[in-house]
Write a structure and sequence with these properties.
The structure is a homodimer of 540-residue chains.
Chain A (H helix, E strand, L loop, with lengths): L12 H10 L4 E5 L5 E5 H18 L6 E5 L4 H11 L4 E4 L6 H11 L3 E4 L4 H7 L8 E4 L13 E3 H5 L16 E7 L7 E6 H11 L12 E4 L11 H8 L2 E4 L6 H10 L4 E4 L1 H14 L8 E4 L6 H10 L3 E7 L6 E4 L11 H8 L10 E5 L14 E6 L22 E9 L5 E6 L4 E3 L2 E3 L1 H8 L5 E11 L3 E10 L7 H6 L13 E4 L13 H7 L8
Parallel strand pairs in A: 1-11, 3-4, 3-5, 4-8, 5-6, 6-7, 10-11, 10-12, 12-13, 13-14, 23-24
Antiparallel strand pairs in A: 1-2, 8-9, 14-15, 16-17, 17-18, 18-19, 20-21, 22-23
């Protein structure tokens, strides 16, 4: 027996329609790449997105065609997304911070037909143009006055847009059709293309808007510092217009001063970015003595939020920290650490302990932790295992890749993270699956050991890797960079762990080195360390 | 090009799964029909719903089968909904306040196979049993100790449930399959069956949970005073577990004292019901001097919230009023009057003016106002027209009724209300479409005129109807019941309108009567008035 409700597809342009109709004058403010602050509204942005859609269609773009963007967060980047979505084409955000050959590889793999770039990134296009195999034309997000000379075929966005008008209706597409793409930059192998659908974007935006997640309201003034090219822009290009929240976009400048300036002048109530950005802001505040009188909440994700950062925001600046976790494959939000009634009364260190957790999942995100055989482990806040997720905004396969094997038999996606979950659903990442040490069938978190090692006053940096062991399969090896001018002994370093870990977690040996290798984003390069110490054997 | 996200259907039992997994110990508190307060949790409620699903399946119920409920808001009624949803069967809430022959007609029309009733309503079943054509068995929501003698085949719920166990998995159903039914009691013709789907219920629950709608969080303690049998229970049986909010259910007692008691002892933060219920509560508070120290928000809908009620809640008891509008055909919420930034600073009478509006729509509800030809009218806060709505939780047709003609060519459903919408999307109902007066092509709101007439000190009650007019098609006739002992004149009554309305709105005549006919729910019976004055002619 069928339900007798209307057939109303979950397509992205409906979100902008809602904002333009119900919140027509709400501000969309951007720091432009050319310099000045630019102000528009949802009503105007929709008109320009309709115009752009008509222009894209006239160009010959059609449903399913991909268009790459190399662009900062501005109103023009937003318009580009909705203009493409409005004809069923696919926005494909490319991270301009990747190496040029990776950028070319990704664009070719996606077979992008057009490339939409900010002025900042024109040099990248110059460098890779000869390697691009599918791109026909480049649109530079500026006007004729600012248009640079290019060796590739290009048009200034404003003039290109002006060749059409807003007399256009969004093309109707199936809600399961592709809407957007974002490649994950894996540490090994080629990047993999995640393909969002209209349905996944809409459901995700609805799911993360609720009070216990991002809690987005029309009265909010939201600054997405997280770039649109980072993990689907954390969905803010959808969830903000859905709520009718004002958007404040930082354009190309993400230094402490620039961010503070917009937070202050635009009275931002909620902002979101990775810890690195907030470190720069906090340093700027400390240096200048400035404060954050308008900001109410800060969403911190992308990597674990350091305890000291939470403490500074909450205790010094009276800004509530919302620790969050997600991944490109999850559209991206998986959890937010808001306070359920069971933990609402925690204060001081106990509250900070809780806030170190990545948080709990919204409706539409299912989580489980399992052992290597896929058997579920309990939600007791200590037993950790592989974190797996399921939901309408979670990837089922990658672009052009064989579908087999990516999901488990119950349809869950393996995040590659290792975590535990407590009885109230608070999840905490304890390691990456490829780094966790398996000792005699039990798992040891390298991240926990590294954090504990840092408690010793002479330790500048610490890394833990698993090394083969004849009896226990693997055992932890602690690698330490001592602080300048110190020469700590093995025994005193290991003494730091006593009483803080189970006995069988104790590293079997300590090695002192001058330097630990890092990835481009500053993380410890454990693959290199494992290679370096592949011949290491523990003493008998 | 398809999106590559997971196929995760929007089915109702997933909501209870989410609550049981992420908010396992959150309370579901009910005043039982037998008397005592009953406490359970989402985890336990899910176990019992699984058991019930297994029991329903063993009985022989299958996908699409309908089961009627005649029941108050209690944990057992919630379990019944989810138990049915979990095998793809359909909960069909029947309003026990209808006349017994209407109840029988509705149950027969829906072809309900089982009837689940509270002890309170056993006498109704006794009265109608001989007329029921499809019901095979009755489950009484109680245990063996409280089970009455019945002349119809019946089982006590607890014992019936105990014949199964919770080792069961929800049956997978298509998200567009029927989930629930609720009949609208039209003023003319037979009741019409609205059929909710799993998808419409899930999307609706997500849409109304956001901060600018019901704003439901895990820290909330929500009391749905509105019965589950009234317009899909305002979605609270879905939106509360979705948010992990505690539920406090009033069972059979909705008098002021009983409601206050639960609000106070259970520290309810949010509650929802029709104005009649709140009138009883406010009278009780005034009489006893009691206050509402825990209550933060009250949702008022079903009929227009009187200005004095908003004033009392907000100014005397410091409870924020959320005026809301919806209808059975909309699952049911259409608008909530939360404060957007444009109106957030209003105070005093200006704020009350705003709060008299029914509010603005969430994402997934599209509204428009049109003239009789379907041409859209502007959102200017004064031009009114027929209110039409579109969305995934809006009815497209009624059970067993011809589909033709119910939606307009753009797929909008005519609400039967007349309203205007302002530039920020705030909608206000000004009349019912069948009551509005069409005078020379312009529309006159009878409700506005009635409210103004009440400003005259001698008017006890006023009704306005349209009467045929040779030149203007229709003109307003004002019918007045004077207060006891007063004999106001026509001219002085009409003087009340001067300066308050456009000249052409002025009623052409006034008639004094001793009584105005009312419907069972206390509304003015305009059909009867129009019949009574069908021969009336205005003086030349």
């Amino acid at each position: 027996m069928p339900g007798l409700m209307q057939d109303w597809s979950l397509t992205c342009p409906r979100i902008l329609d809602h904002a333009a109709r119900n919140h027509p004058t709400r501000a969309v403010v951007s720091r432009s790449v050319e310099g000045p602050i630019h102000r528009t509204t949802y009503a105007e942005l929709r008109q320009r997105a309709l115009t752009l859609a008509k222009r894209f269609q006239r160009y010959g773009l059609t449903e399913g065609d991909r268009v790459a963007t190399l662009a900062w967060n501005t109103w023009r980047h937003m318009e580009t997304w909705y203009g493409l979505l409005g004809i069923g084409a696919v926005y494909h955000t490319v991270n301009p911070r990747l190496f040029p050959d990776q950028i070319a590889w990704i664009i070719n793999h996606a077979e992008d037909r057009l490339l939409v770039v900010d002025l900042t990134f024109v040099p990248i296009v110059e460098a890779i143009w000869k390697d691009l195999t599918s791109v026909e034309h480049v649109i530079v997000l500026t006007d004729a006055a600012h248009m640079p000379e290019t060796s590739f075929p290009a048009s200034p966005y404003e003039e290109w847009l002006a060749e059409a008008d807003a007399d256009f209706a969004w093309v109707e597409v199936d809600e399961n059709a592709a809407a957007g793409m974002c490649y994950t930059s894996g540490t090994t192998g080629n990047p993999k293309g995640v393909v969002y659908s209209h349905r996944s974007n809409v459901l995700h935006a609805m799911a993360v808007s609720v009070p216990d997640m991002l809690s987005l309201a029309a009265r909010d003034r939201v600054m997405p510092v997280v770039p649109l090219f980072h993990a689907n822009g954390w969905s803010l290009a959808f969830s903000c217009p859905l709520a009718g929240a004002a958007m404040i976009m930082p354009g190309p400048r993400m230094d402490g001063e620039a961010i503070w300036e917009l937070l202050d002048t635009e009275k931002v109530s909620l902002t979101a970015a990775v810890p690195t950005v907030w470190l720069m802001l906090l340093q700027y505040l400390e240096k200048t003595g400035r404060t954050l009188p308008h900001l109410e909440r800060v969403v911190i994700g992308g990597s674990a939020c350091p305890r000291a950062m939470t403490k500074a925001f909450e205790e010094v600046y009276d800004v509530r920290v919302m620790h969050a976790w997600g991944m490109t494959e999850m559209s991206p939000l998986g959890t937010v650490c808001s306070l359920k009634p069971e933990v609402a009364d925690l204060a001081g260190e106990a509250r900070l302990d809780l806030q170190e957790k990545q948080g709990h999942a919204p409706f539409t995100v299912e989580m489980k932790v399992t052992d290597d055989d896929g058997t579920e482990r309990p939600w007791d806040g200590k037993t950790f295992g592989r974190l797996k997720v399921r939901g309408p905004a979670v990837t089922r396969s990658y672009f052009k890749e064989d579908k087999a094997g990516i999901l488990d038999e119950d349809g869950f996606f393996d995040t590659g993270d290792v975590s535990h979950i407590d009885a109230h659903g608070y999840m905490q990442i304890t390691d990456r699956a490829k780094d966790v040490i398996k000792s005699g069938g039990e798992w040891i978190s390298t991240i926990d050991l590294e954090n504990l090692a840092l408690l010793h006053p002479d330790v500048a940096e610490a890394a833990v890797i698993g090394v083969a062991h004849p009896k226990w399969d693997e055992r932890p090896l602690l690698i330490v960079v001592p602080k300048d001018g110190t020469e700590p002994g093995k025994e005193e370093i290991l003494a730091t762990f006593e009483g803080r870990i189970a006995k069988w977690w104790m590293p079997n040996d300590v090695i002192f080195v001058e330097e630990i290798p890092h990835t481009a984003t500053g993380k410890i390069k454990k693959t290199a360390l494992r290679e370096q110490f592949s011949d290491f054997t523990f003493e008998a």
